[in-house]
Amino acid sequence: MPIYYTRCIKPQSIDPKLFTDREDEYHHLKAILKSIILAKEEEERRLLIHGERGVGKSILLRKVLFHLKQEIDFIPVIVDGRNSLDAEELLRDICEKLASQLRDEYKDERAICEISYLDEVSRADKMTKSEAKSRASEIEAKSGAGIGFLDFLKLSFGVGGKEAEAEELTKSITTEINSRFLRELLSFVIKTIKKEVVIAIDNLDQIHDKNQIAEFVREIFKHRESLIIATLRSEAITAEFRRSFRDPILIKGLSPEALMDILARRIEKCPEGEILKNRLPPIADTLKTLTDNPLSFLTWIHFLCNNSELNTENLLNDLNGFVLTHYNFDPEKASSISKFFLEKGNPFLPKETILAESKISEDDYAVMIENGILVPDDLYEPRKYRLSPDLLFFKLKQDSENETISNATDREFSNKPR
Ligand SMILES: Nc1ncnc2c1ncn2[C@@H]1O[C@H](COP(=O)(O)OP(=O)(O)O)[C@@H](O)[C@H]1O
Ligand SMILES: [Mg+2]
């Protein structure tokens, strides 16, 4: 039975309040973003942030945007690719988040009405001309400044103001609310409102339909009014991304000390904090030397806190349970493939080499790719694979085997007759 149950380790949380360290990257990113936001006239204001999964891109970006918002005036719209099936859903999400941000900014009757229609459109499939007309007259009846929604209706549906009798015939004409519609609407709104809108697409590589990512990038880039920031895993950077985003920022792994700071911040206000402060250090001290990836580090510790007795002697054995629970894979096999990769220093290797040298079956190889034990060099055209950072704890096994060998050699040596 595990001795603790704790929610404090939070391996997935990107709450900026938990952010620590990374002083250099924080200031660097903040300075870059600030200068791009202020360079309003420039075309192609885009920024790409990339790095290994779990390295800390999302939390860094949120922290920087959160602080920058207190220094300069802009409207941040942050969406997450993981919540969208395709390019259109991502645009819908952007409309919805923009509407929600605008609610805080505008108090005019007309703006409030337009914002609620922007929000409505983000969920609707189609709009008839008659619906557009009734919304336009409702908005026109309100006083104050708008956010551009009325102008968009006028232009797209030819409604508003005085209309000829013949217009009656076209009332039931239906317009599909698709990517193009949403993009044009967004452009209209962003042009109308006075403040800078910064659109941040976190995990752009993780929209479900991978084929649509390039399309989305093209779609969103037709829209030149605002700064667009995207984060993605390095293995998802295609030639197209490289062309679209100049000077991408690479986020690297963290030092053992930084990993310990991240952990400490999480247990600061934790109800189980006292026990964890006593029991975790030996385990964390060992684990921090095995990875520079905060997500892997936190995921292991979270698992151990909730599924083990937090005993350093059993660390490797307890983490075998992690392979089973998180990867649904035989820990013995995971251990042997890890040994193979770790002995080589975990390089990316082609299938032929992996199969020939590691002696795993073709079926196991396929399963390991499917469940993420092996990760590709390129998400779309994978040619080589290496061990997932989550499995680097198998270094413990390697270390203990090396120790046994060196102890044995020592013994042999000392047993030799003088
Ligand atoms: N500098 C940091 N301070 C505090 N927590 C961090 C830091 N960097 C990463 N983390 C934590 O590590 C995990 C992975 O970070 P995340 O930003 O989601 O990575 P990525 O977006 O690169 O996949 C999250 O739980 C996050 O809170
Ligand atoms: Mg992320």
The amount of helix comes to 40-55%
* CATH domain fold name of the largest domain: Rossmann fold
The biggest beta sheet is recorded as: 5 strands, parallel
CATH superfamily of the largest domain: P-loop containing nucleotide triphosphate hydrolases
Bound small molecules, deduplicated: adenosine-5'-diphosphate, magnesium ion
**What is the annotated CATH architecture of the largest domain?**
3-Layer(aba) Sandwich
Q: Number of domains in the coordinates?
A: 2
Helix-strand category: alpha/beta
- List the helices and strands in order: HEHEHHEHHEHEHEHEHHHHHEHHEEH
The number of strands is 10
Strand order across the largest sheet: 2-5-6-1-7
